[in-house]
Write a structure and sequence with these properties.
Layout lengths: L1 E7 L4 E7 L2 E9 L6 E7 L2 E7 L4 H15 L10 E6 L10 E2 L2 H9 L8 H14 L5 E5 L9 H4 L5 H7 L8 H15 L7 E7 L3 E7 L2 E5 L21 H8 L4 H10 L2 H6 L4 H9 L3 H25 L4 E5 H6 L1 H8 L11 H5 L6 E2 L8 E4 L4 H14 L3
Parallel strand pairs: 1-6, 6-8, 9-12, 12-14
Antiparallel strand pairs: 1-2, 2-3, 3-4, 4-5, 7-8, 9-10, 10-11, 13-14
Length: 394
């Protein structure tokens, strides 16, 4: 089966071409909207790069088509069996991947106010392929769908029904494809059925979220109606007292000022001037006090969520680190886990600091809770969900 998976971000476009569940080529276009946008295509052992102005996502899609054909990865887009799209926000409409039709497009449009940077980019890709390749089935896979299994007591805010129901205010959660993928991989590593496990998965990158997974189902997650709630992130504040917003407005901040402050000027950036964890870790080695504080706050918030989710799950079998920071920052993992001895966590420091690829366990044999490092693969998870739908197509 030939599948193309599209992951359109707010300023980037990623795609992967799969042939019978094996990735044949992958492409990343960065800095969309800039004159120095960069496209990097990987195919087997070959890398093709191009720097050019990419005005918008429409231009990025055209460049993607050109490079996939130029590389020889695809001879013709019409030979594709399906195209899968990551869609960030599905609102209350979707709890699983679906074929894309006019009703689905309208539903995605209706929740643009909840994901104004991402859903328009997702729709741009969908519409372009509908126009150019109308006979190829397109499938939407939603970041929010995995978390639709949260019980109402976890997904609702304590607001009047007339407000929450009318305006769709509830906890949706994000990074669902990542949490779903690493949970299934964790079951393989542990040699157990996913339906028997209690997992806490930590997707740590510029955006970061924790998820409590019981019997393969999300029962709680740290992000809420938007990706702002929860952990300290690269530029997002995470959890704060909501009255801070009112206080700032009384001090002269506009609604847009507060939005920009909490989403783009807070988190690690506010604490030490950068959202790059690699730079923060280098500065920590030099005892830079601001970097040390940023790292302590980042890891402390993660530990708080682990404690809360252990209680929610009634215990935990494994903790999973994934995402750019989760996979590569051994000191972050160590600082999170070293104070979880009460939980029975015993880190093998040598294993934790090894620079190896692939899934691995970083706890000692004596540890009563396994701690795993699992590289996420959202595109592969999307491909799996698309293939399942296509195989069952009537």
């Amino acid at each position: 089966m030939k599948l193309l998976v599209i992951n359109a971000g707010s300023s980037s476009l990623k795609c992967s071409y799969y042939l019978d569940k094996t990735v044949e080529a992958s492409l990343l276009i960065e800095r969309i909207g800039k004159k120095d946008a960069k496209a990097t295509l990987h195919r087997q052992n070959h890398i093709l790069t191009q720097e050019t102005a990419v005005t918008n996502h429409h231009d990025a899609m055209i460049l993607m088509e050109k490079l996939l054909l130029l590389s020889g990865a695809l001879e013709n887009f019409d030979t594709l069996d399906g195209i899968g799209h990551r869609v960030v926000h599905g609102g209350e409409h979707f709890n699983a991947a679906v074929y894309i039709d006019s009703k689905v497009i309208k539903a995605i449009e209706s929740v643009i106010p909840l994901a104004p940077l991402h859903n328009p980019a997702n729709l741009e890709a969908i519409r372009l392929f509908q126009k150019n390749y109308p006979n190829i089935p397109q499938i939407a896979v939603f970041d929010t769908a995995f978390h639709r299994t949260m019980p109402e007591y976890a997904s609702r805010y304590a607001l009047p029904e007339t407000v929450s129901d009318t305006l769709g205010i509830r906890r949706y959660g994000f990074h669902g494809t990542s949490h779903s993928y690493v949970a299934k991989e964790a079951a393989k590593v542990l040699g157990k059925q996913l339906a028997s496990l209690r997992l806490i998965t930590l997707h740590l990158g510029n955006g970061a979220s924790a998820c409590a997974i019981q019997n393969g189902r999300s029962i709680d997650t740290s992000m809420g109606m938007t990706p702002l709630e929860g952990l300290v992130m690269g530029t997002r504040s995470g959890d704060i007292d909501p009255a801070i917003i009112f206080y700032l407005q009384h001090q002269g901040y506009t609604v847009d000022d507060v939005d920009t402050l909490l989403n783009k000027q807070s988190g690690l950036t506010a604490l030490c001037g950068t959202n790059d964890m690699r730079e923060i870790l280098e500065r920590v080695q030099s005892n830079d006090p601001k970097a040390v504080l940023a790292l302590e706050m980042f890891t402390y918030r993660i530990r708080k969520y682990i404690g809360a989710y252990t209680a929610a799950l009634g215990g935990v079998d494994a903790i999973v680190f994934t995402g750019g920071i989760g996979e590569h920052a051994s000191l972050v993992r160590e600082m999170v886990c070293e104070k979880l001895a009460w939980l029975g966590v015993s880190i093998d420091r040598k294993r934790n600091h090894e620079k190896t690829d692939g899934n691995r366990t970083i706890t000692t044999p004596q540890s009563s809770v396994a701690v795993l490092v699992i590289p996420t693969d959202e595109e592969l998870e999307i491909a799996h969900q698309c293939e399942a739908i296509l195989e069952n197509r009537v």
